[in-house]
Amino acid sequence: xxxxxxxxxxxxxxxxxxxxxxxxxxxxxxxxxxxxxxxxxxxxxxxxxxxxxxxxxxxxxxxxxxxxxxxxxxxxxxxxxxxxxxxxxxxxxxxxxxxxxxxxxxxxxxxx
Length: 112
Fold this sequence. Notes:
Number of helices: 5
Low-confidence stretches: none
CATH topology: Rossmann fold
Largest sheet: 5 strands, parallel
CATH class: Alpha Beta
Order of helices and strands: EHEHEEEHEHEH
Number of strands: 7
CATH superfamily: Response regulator
Structural class: alpha/beta
CATH architecture: 3-Layer(aba) Sandwich
Strand order of the largest sheet: 2-1-3-6-7
């Protein structure tokens, strides 16, 4: 069963991502709303995929993704954000604009 870590501080968006990822075959999830929570979740259970918002409580999803990958090695990730232009240089294939399209998320997950 594939496990996803959703790094998002808006609960409705986190739940929407969980539902969309479930449609893509992910069967278990952790939701983290701070970089610290994200790292703790990833250390407790290594995710098969991470989604991260650019700005979250107490920092940035980008920082959380980097910290997790520094500790655990390469893990596929997708940024889901309303600030996509700020991220396209770092991860052009793995950025999904809000509002979230299920097709755009599926495509980005496949590329990640």
